[in-house]
Design goal:
The chain is of the alpha+beta class. The protein has helices spanning 20-29, 44-48, 75-86; strands at 13-16, 37-40, 56-60, 66-70. The two termini are 19 Å apart.
Length: 92
Protein backbone atom coordinates (compact mmCIF):
# COMPACT_ATOMS: atom_id res chain seq x y z
CA UNK A 1 0.00 0.00 0.00
CA UNK A 2 2.88 2.35 0.69
CA UNK A 3 4.01 2.02 -2.91
CA UNK A 4 0.47 2.28 -4.26
CA UNK A 5 -0.22 5.53 -2.39
CA UNK A 6 3.31 6.97 -2.32
CA UNK A 7 2.26 10.18 -4.10
CA UNK A 8 -0.67 10.92 -1.77
CA UNK A 9 0.12 9.48 1.67
CA UNK A 10 3.20 9.36 3.87
CA UNK A 11 3.57 6.05 5.71
CA UNK A 12 5.64 5.68 8.89
CA UNK A 13 6.16 2.49 10.88
CA UNK A 14 6.38 2.92 14.65
CA UNK A 15 7.99 0.09 16.58
CA UNK A 16 7.42 0.34 20.32
CA UNK A 17 8.56 -1.43 23.45
CA UNK A 18 11.60 -3.04 21.89
CA UNK A 19 15.11 -2.25 20.76
CA UNK A 20 16.23 -0.47 17.63
CA UNK A 21 17.98 -3.68 16.59
CA UNK A 22 14.71 -5.65 16.83
CA UNK A 23 12.93 -3.01 14.73
CA UNK A 24 15.66 -3.09 12.10
CA UNK A 25 15.53 -6.90 12.01
CA UNK A 26 11.74 -6.81 11.49
CA UNK A 27 11.99 -4.18 8.74
CA UNK A 28 14.74 -6.10 6.96
CA UNK A 29 13.09 -9.50 7.46
CA UNK A 30 9.83 -8.37 5.89
CA UNK A 31 11.42 -6.06 3.28
CA UNK A 32 9.54 -3.01 4.59
CA UNK A 33 11.99 -0.54 3.17
CA UNK A 34 9.64 1.57 1.04
CA UNK A 35 8.78 3.88 3.97
CA UNK A 36 10.55 5.13 7.11
CA UNK A 37 10.35 3.48 10.52
CA UNK A 38 11.03 4.93 13.94
CA UNK A 39 11.83 3.23 17.21
CA UNK A 40 9.52 4.13 20.10
CA UNK A 41 11.07 2.13 22.95
CA UNK A 42 9.14 3.98 25.66
CA UNK A 43 5.87 3.85 23.65
CA UNK A 44 5.52 7.64 23.72
CA UNK A 45 4.14 7.79 20.17
CA UNK A 46 1.85 4.85 20.88
CA UNK A 47 0.57 6.60 24.02
CA UNK A 48 -0.04 9.83 22.13
CA UNK A 49 -2.41 8.01 19.77
CA UNK A 50 -3.86 5.53 22.28
CA UNK A 51 -2.29 2.46 20.71
CA UNK A 52 -2.28 -0.41 23.24
CA UNK A 53 -0.91 -3.18 20.98
CA UNK A 54 -0.08 -4.27 17.43
CA UNK A 55 -1.37 -4.45 14.86
CA UNK A 56 -2.71 -0.95 15.03
CA UNK A 57 -3.16 1.85 12.56
CA UNK A 58 -3.32 5.61 13.05
CA UNK A 59 -4.52 7.70 10.15
CA UNK A 60 -3.67 11.41 10.33
CA UNK A 61 -4.89 14.14 8.00
CA UNK A 62 -2.78 17.12 6.98
CA UNK A 63 -4.48 19.26 9.65
CA UNK A 64 -3.67 16.78 12.43
CA UNK A 65 -7.00 15.01 12.82
CA UNK A 66 -6.41 11.38 13.71
CA UNK A 67 -8.37 8.14 13.73
CA UNK A 68 -7.14 4.88 15.23
CA UNK A 69 -7.95 1.32 14.16
CA UNK A 70 -6.87 -1.73 16.13
CA UNK A 71 -6.27 -5.16 14.66
CA UNK A 72 -5.88 -6.41 11.14
CA UNK A 73 -7.76 -4.57 8.40
CA UNK A 74 -8.98 -6.48 5.33
CA UNK A 75 -7.33 -5.22 2.14
CA UNK A 76 -10.57 -3.90 0.61
CA UNK A 77 -11.33 -1.93 3.80
CA UNK A 78 -7.78 -0.59 3.94
CA UNK A 79 -8.01 0.60 0.33
CA UNK A 80 -11.25 2.46 1.14
CA UNK A 81 -9.64 4.07 4.19
CA UNK A 82 -6.53 5.08 2.24
CA UNK A 83 -8.65 6.47 -0.60
CA UNK A 84 -10.36 8.73 1.96
CA UNK A 85 -7.02 9.70 3.50
CA UNK A 86 -5.59 10.49 0.06
CA UNK A 87 -8.44 13.02 -0.19
CA UNK A 88 -7.38 14.33 3.24
CA UNK A 89 -10.45 12.87 4.93
CA UNK A 90 -10.55 10.52 7.88
CA UNK A 91 -12.27 7.20 7.30
CA UNK A 92 -16.01 7.23 7.90
Amino acid sequence: MARRYEQEIRFVGVAARDSVEAMEGFVDGFALTSFPHIADPDAEVWSRFGVPYQPAWVFVTSNGEAARALGAIPESDLIAILDDLARDRLPA
